[in-house]
Design a protein that fits this description.
Blueprint: E1 2-3, E2 6-8, E3 11-13, E4 20-25, E5 30-36, H1 40-58, H2 62-78, H3 80-91, H4 95-116, E6 124-128, E7 131-139, E8 142-146, H5 152-165, E9 169-173, H6 180-192, E10 199-201, H7 206-215, E11 221-225, H8 228-238, E12 244-248, E13 253-257, H9 263-275, E14 285-291, H10 292-307, H11 327-342, E15 346-349, E16 353-354, E17 365-366, E18 369-372, H12 379-382, E19 389-395, H13 398-405, E20 410-411, E21 413-417, H14 421-430, E22 435-438, E23 453-454, E24 457-458, H15 463-469, E25 471-479
Parallel strand pairs: 1-5, 8-9, 8-11, 9-10, 11-12, 13-14, 13-21, 14-19, 18-19, 21-22
Antiparallel strand pairs: 2-3, 4-5, 6-7, 7-25, 12-24, 15-18, 16-17, 20-23
Helix pairs in contact: 1-7, 2-4, 2-6, 3-4, 4-5, 9-10
This protein binds NADPH dihydro-nicotinamide-adenine-dinucleotide phosphate.
The site of NADPH dihydro-nicotinamide-adenine-dinucleotide phosphate (NDP) has 33 residues, from helix 7 and helix 8.
């Protein structure tokens, strides 16, 4: 069975413990490779390698760093098909989705920050005729990056790229559930001759490898994307040490559809924003509020279109949805469907596992599920399910829509559908959410601030925000 390796100090190495964790293909429900079960020793080796590489990497010019990072981007592009297949096999998402979204975005993350760093400037302030302040933005040191399983290479590189471009060295831990493309990125680093120790990739589970990285005294800052409970644990370790943190956490995003929306566009996009990637995107809308005038029409069209979705083999280009990422997550999603029924919800479509034939007969598939009849305060509507499950509920006024949108502890993303400019701006002003989409969804511009309010996170990624996070401002005041 293929064994993945850690990538430390420029070399592929086995875990110090010699122990491995099973890695599953979720569409088949079977183990297909083994992941290093890394712990403190591996993390220590990686952090030491990153520390040794820091003086060399941080003193390269922005152009030189940019050239190195572009090599990663270009090589990802050359291997796009191979990486997309690997991502699909590891995560369960359709190959077409990984080909169109995940891997191109990983390529673009590197290209974006490799070019962005060339334009990253700092301020100067003329304080008096002979007094000037200028602000240096210096690389900080060893950056720890921890990412989740839903968009594996996409989110992994979204952190690594700005950290490296800004001049830091990196120790990164991908999710143990989807480690394969991170391993392939290690191979790419070796293929392009990336300088040893600048990027280190250490595999393993959260409680061992992740925890060892977070608790390592010689990391300087940490960028984390994952669940809110994990984020709280990490913050409790790093906050008393006064280490810089960026936390991109969970969501329970509202999708608010007004009577005056462009019905067809709203319907088409809502199908996507509900169930893309099996609903396992932190930005998916899972609470759908529909204004009463079109409630029944929208509900019926939404249910009909959803019930036609093909849930199938991720390799089949006709599969609209693939497998749920892991058995525990599959069981969690199904348990929330049961909870919704217990809470009095009516399943309008879906609500059950899908059992495929052939090589996928043991895979973890769930039919896209729409639930009606729940109030906004029930657990189904308050807790993050992170699967192909949405609830629908009518509303009357825009004030009520704001109250519904804001009624959870999360505030990551919201989608608003209306043709009325004033209504859209009222919602944009009042919904407490880091990202608001009006008449669109997941239309990303990598320059924009990305992140959530409330329990959805601390800090923002993207554009200059990311480069600011990964640098330390130092003000210099000169009087002459
Ligand atoms: P988790 O919080 O379980 O895990 C995220 C990462 O943290 C994984 O690499 C995990 O390792 C690691 N980890 C787990 N425990 C610890 C620990 N104690 N110390 C250090 N690292 C740890 O999240 P999921 O992987 O389940 O991802 C789903 C969550 O991510 C959802 O809540 C989703 O909303 C959120 N998310 C947020 C996004 C945003 O931008 N705001 C984007 C995408 C997802 P391992 O998996 O190996 O155990």
């Amino acid at each position: 069975m293929f064994k993945l390796s850690n990538y430390i100090d420029g070399a592929l190495v086995p875990p110090a413990s010699g122990q491995y964790i099973d890695n599953y293909n979720p569409a088949k429900g079977e183990v297909y490779s083994l992941i290093p079960d890394s712990g403190e020793e591996d993390m220590d080796n990686a952090v030491k390698a990153a520390r040794r590489a820091f003086p060399g990497w941080s003193t390269l010019t922005a152009d030189q760093r940019s050239e190195w990072i572009m090599k990663l981007s270009n090589r990802i592009n050359e291997k796009l098909a191979e990486l997309a297949e690997a991502e699909s096999k590891d995560n369960g998402k359709p190959v077409w989705l990984a080909t169109q979204v995940d891997i191109p975005r990983a390529r673009d993350n590197f290209a974006f920050f490799a070019t962005g760093i060339k334009h990253f400037a700092s301020e100067s302030h003329q304080t008096a005729p002979k007094v000037i302040n200028y602000t240096l933005k210096q690389p900080i040191g060893v950056a720890a990056c921890i990412s989740p399983w839903n968009l594996p290479l996409y989110l992994f590189t979204w952190k690594i790229a700005p950290a490296l471009a800004a001049g830091n060295t990196v120790v990164a831990k991908p999710s143990e559930i989807t480690p394969m493309t991170a391993h392939l990125l290690s191979e790419i680093c070796i293929e392009v001759g990336f300088p040893a120790g600048v990027l280190n990739i250490v595999h393993g589970n959260g409680p061992n490898a992740g925890n060892a990285l977070v608790n390592h005294d010689d990391i300087d800052l940490l960028s984390f994307t994952g669940g809110t409970a994990t984020g709280a644990k990490i913050a409790s370790v790093l906050a008393p040490k006064f280490k810089k943190m960026s936390l991109e956490l969970g969501g329970k995003n509202p999708n608010i559809i007004f009577d005056d929306c462009d019905f067809e566009k709203a319907l088409k996009t809502t199908l996507n924003s509900s169930f893309a990637n099996q609903g396992q995107i932190c930005l998916c809308g899972s609470r759908i509020y529909i204004q009463r005038g079109i409630y029944e029409k929208f509900r019926d069209a939404f249910v009909e279109a959803t019930s036609k979705f093909k849930v199938g083999d991720p390799k089949d280009p006709d599969s609209r949805m693939g497998a749920i990422v892991s058995k525990p997550h599959y069981e969690k999603v199904l348990s929330y469907i049961n909870l919704a029924k217990e809470e009095g919800g009516t399943i309008l479509t879906g609500g059950e596992a899908v059992h495929l034939d052939g090589e996928n007969k043991n895979g973890w598939f769930i039919r896209p599920t729409i639930i009606e009849g729940l109030d906004e305060q029930c657990r189904t509507n308050q807790e993050e399910i992170f699967g192909p499950v949405v609830t629908i509920q009518p509303f009357d006024t825009k004030e009520e829509a704001v109250a519904l949108a804001n009624c959870t502890c999360y505030g990551l993303a919201a989608t608003i559908w209306t043709e009325n400019l004033s209504t859209s701006q009222f919602m944009a002003q009042n919904v407490k959410s880091g990202i608001i989409w009006i008449n669109c969804w997941l239309l990303r511009d990598l320059r924009t601030p990305f992140g959530g309010m409330k329990n959805s996170g601390v800090g923002r990624e993207g554009g200059w925000e990311a480069l600011r996070f990964f640098t330390e401002p130092k003000n210099v005041c000169i009087k002459y």
